[in-house]
């Protein structure tokens, strides 16, 4: 079964520690059974990305960015273009992470523009979707996901990955049950197929760790994992990537 494991380092590390951890990743993954069906992506902050690209150049580990501008070029002070990320070695870009939605007020219109611009730059977007705790409580999960996907995927091409990240599961130590995750992934795949006319990969994120990764073994519709906290230790992330 095909699996992609993505390390989301957020803004957790100093520049020096990012480079050190990238080197540790490179070493620990030396004998990993990489294949087109088994990929590992490292997504550091923008500033460490070019140097990390050099560190992992001879490794099959791929590089991802954690955001990109919604425009391809121009007078957008402080933004980082998808094209430059691609030039520096990124192959993937995380778009619409719940922290960006929550703290930087990203909405579906902006996220949609970012997806289009990222694909134009030949980056593979990893689009994050997910419900809040309250939305789950009142049984709105599917409705929220359908809304997010329909709006975000407008005029988007099919070369992207969806990450199902329930907002309440991120960094909380709590996850939905494997059966719930499986059911939601099937739902997202159906929706994406309707919208884009193509089967997409759907990965899960939110409190994935070496301690709980085995629980997800039977989830056939989980095509990989987006890992935050547990990707900050090379050993632990490596264990997760054994699934
Ligand atoms: P977490 O973060 O693994 O620390 O819950 C996941 C994410 O935010 O992508």
Strand order of the largest sheet: 1-2-3-4-5-6-7-8
Mean of the pLDDT scores? 97
Briefly note the structural class of the backbone.
alpha/beta
Helix content: 25-40%
Radius of gyration: 17 Å
Largest sheet: 8 strands, parallel, barrel
Distance between the termini: 10 Å
Strand content: 15-25%
Q: What small molecules accompany the polymer chains?
A: 2-phosphoglycolic acid
Number of helices: 9
Low-confidence stretches: none
The SSE order reads EHEHEHEHHEHHEHEEH
Shape: globular
Count of DSSP strands = 8
Q: What does this molecule look like?
A:
- With 243 residues, the protein is α/β, with parallel strands linked by helices.
- 37% of the residues lie in helices and 16% in strands.
- The protein contains 9 helices and 8 strands.
- Strands 1-2-3-4-5-6-7-8 form an 8-stranded parallel β-barrel, surrounded by 4 helices.
- α3 (82-87) links the parallel β3 and β4.
- It is globular.
- The model has no long low-confidence stretch (mean pLDDT 97).
Task: Give a short summary of the structure.
With 243 residues, the chain is α/β, with parallel strands linked by helices.
Fold blueprint:
Blueprint (H helix, E strand, L loop, with lengths): L2 E6 L6 H14 L9 E6 L5 H7 L6 E4 L16 H6 L4 E4 L2 H6 L4 H13 L3 E6 L3 H5 L3 H12 L8 E4 L13 H19 L4 E5 L18 E4 L6 H7 L3
Parallel strand pairs: 1-2, 1-8, 2-3, 3-4, 4-5, 5-6, 6-7, 7-8
Bound molecules: 2-phosphoglycolic acid (PGA).
């Amino acid at each position: 079964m095909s699996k992609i494991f993505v390390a989301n380092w957020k803004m957790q590390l100093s520049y020096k520690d990012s480079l050190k951890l990238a080197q540790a990743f490179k070493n620990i993954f030396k004998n990993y059974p990489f294949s087109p069906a088994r990929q590992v992506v490292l997504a550091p902050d923008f500033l460490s990305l070019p140097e990390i690209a050099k560190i992992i150049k001879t490794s099959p580990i791929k590089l991802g960015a954690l955001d990109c501008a919604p425009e391809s070029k121009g007078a957008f002070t402080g933004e980082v273009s998808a094209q430059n990320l691609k030039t520096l070695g990124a192959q993937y870009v995380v778009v619409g992470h719940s922290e960006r939605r929550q703290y930087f007020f990203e909405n579906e219109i902006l996220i949609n523009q970012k997806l289009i611009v990222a694909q134009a730059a030949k980056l593979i977007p990893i689009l994050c979707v997910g419900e809040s705790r309250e939305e789950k409580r009142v049984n709105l999960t599917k409705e929220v996901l359908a809304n997010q996907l329909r709006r975000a995927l407008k005029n988007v091409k099919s070369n992207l990955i969806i990450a199902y990240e329930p907002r309440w599961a991120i960094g909380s130590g709590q996850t939905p049950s494997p059966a719930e995750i499986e059911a939601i992934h099937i739902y997202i795949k159906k929706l994406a197929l309707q919208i884009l006319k193509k089967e997409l990969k759907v990965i899960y994120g939110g409190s994935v760790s070496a301690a709980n990764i085995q629980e997800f073994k039977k989830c056939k519709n989980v095509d990989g994992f987006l890992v935050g906290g547990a990707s900050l230790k090379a050993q632990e992330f490596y264990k997760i990537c054994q699934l």
